[in-house]
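Sample entry was shown:

___
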Amino acid sequence: MKNKKVGYRWTICLLLFFATTINYLDRQVLSLLKPSLEEQFGWSNSDYANIASVFQLAYALSMLFAGRFIDRLGTKWGYGWAIILWSLGAMMHAYSIPIGQTITTVLGWAGIVLAPVSILGFMISRAVLGIGESGNFPAAIKATAEYFPKKERSFATGIFNSGANVGAIFAPLTVPWIATQWGWESAFIIIGSIGFIWLGFWLIYYERPEKQSRLSREELEYINSDQEENTSTPQEEKKIPWFQLLSYRPTWSFAVGKFLTDGVWWFFLFWLPAYLKDQYGMTGVSIMLPLTVLYSMTMIGSIGGGWLPVYFIRKGLAPYDGRMRAMFYIAMIPLVVLAAQYLGSISYWMPVLLIGIGASAHQAWSANIFTTVSDMFPKSAVASVVGIGGMAGGLGGVLITKTGGALFDHYKSLGHIETGYTIMFTYCAIAYLIAWMLMKTLVPRYRPVAKNHWRSS
C-alpha cells in the first residue's frame, strides 16, 4: 500500500510542475518589461497587443500540431524538444533589435515593410517562444494520463498546473530586478536558459511507466488499475485518425471551454502590469509586491480546484460528472471581478485581491477542464485532443488581447482608459459561466470515447 500512496509517479509530477513554472516564467518576462520597453521604443497599447498576439497565435496554431507530434514521438522526447525550442525563443528576445534589422533589410530589397524594427524583432521572438511553449500542456497532460489513475489525475494536474502560478510569482520578483541590474536583455537570457537545466533532469528521470526501472510493480498495477488500455503500443497509437477526433462532442466541449476562458488568464498575465501603470502609475520594482501577492493566491485555486472533484467522485459520481459539478461552483467565483474597478478608488489592493480571486478560480477551472480530456479519451489520444483545445484557447487569447489593446488605446485617447478595463473585467467575470453552460450542453453526462471506435482495420 505504501507504494500506491507515495511513489515514483509523484517525482514525474514534480518534473511537470517545474517545467510549467519555467514555461510561465519565460512567457511573462515581456509583460513585466512592457512599461520600459514601450518608453524606449515608443510602442502604443495596440503595438504591444500585436506583439503579444503573435505569441498567442503561434501558440494556438502550434498546439494543434504539438499534441499530435507528442502523441507520435512520445512524451519524453516530445517534451524535450518543446522546451529546447521555447528556451531558445525566450533567449532570442534579447536580440530582437538585430533580428528585426536583419529581416527589415532583407524584406526591404523586395520593397516590403511589415513593421518597425523593434516590433518586428519581438514578434519573431514571440512566435518562436509560442511554438515551443505549445508543447508544454499536451505533454504534461499526456504524462499525467500515463502515470496516474483517473481518480488522481485532477489532483496531479492541479499540482503541476500550480507551476504556472509559481512562475507568475517568481517573474515579478526576479525580472524587474535583473533588468535594473544588468539591462532588459539579460532578463530574457537568464530566465530563458533555465529550461536547459530542467531538460537534463527530464531525460534522466522520465520513461514510459512500462519501461520505468524506478517504478515498482505494485505502483504500476495501481496506475493501471482503472485503465482499459494497459497494453497499448506506439504502433497502435499511430493509428488514431486525427480528424476523427473532431467528430466527437467531448472534443468540442473542451475546445469551447478553452476558447472562452483561456483569454481571461492571458489577459491577467499580459495586461496586469500595464493596468497597474495606467491606473496607479506603478512601474518597475513597485509592482513586485502586488503581483506576487496576486499570483500567490492562484496557487490555492490550482491545487484546491484539483481536489474539489474528488469530493464529488467519492460521493459516487463518475469522474467527468464530479468534475463538471466542481467546475460549476468554480465558475461562480470570478463574478467578484465585477467589483474590481468600482472598489479600486479605495486602494490598488482592492482590485489586486479581487482579480487574484478571479485568477485563482481560473487555475481551479484549468486543473479540471484539462482532466476532462483524460476522463473521456484513451491515453493514446489525450495529447492530440489537448492540442485541439489548446489551439482554440490560444485563438480566444488572441481575440481578448487584440480587443484589450484597441479598447485601451481608444479610451485613453478620450481620457477614460478605466472604461476599457471595466469592459474587459466584465468579460473576465462572466466567461466561465458561459463556458460551463455550453460544455454541459455539448456533453450532458459522462460518455467516454472508446479506443476501438477508431482503431484501423
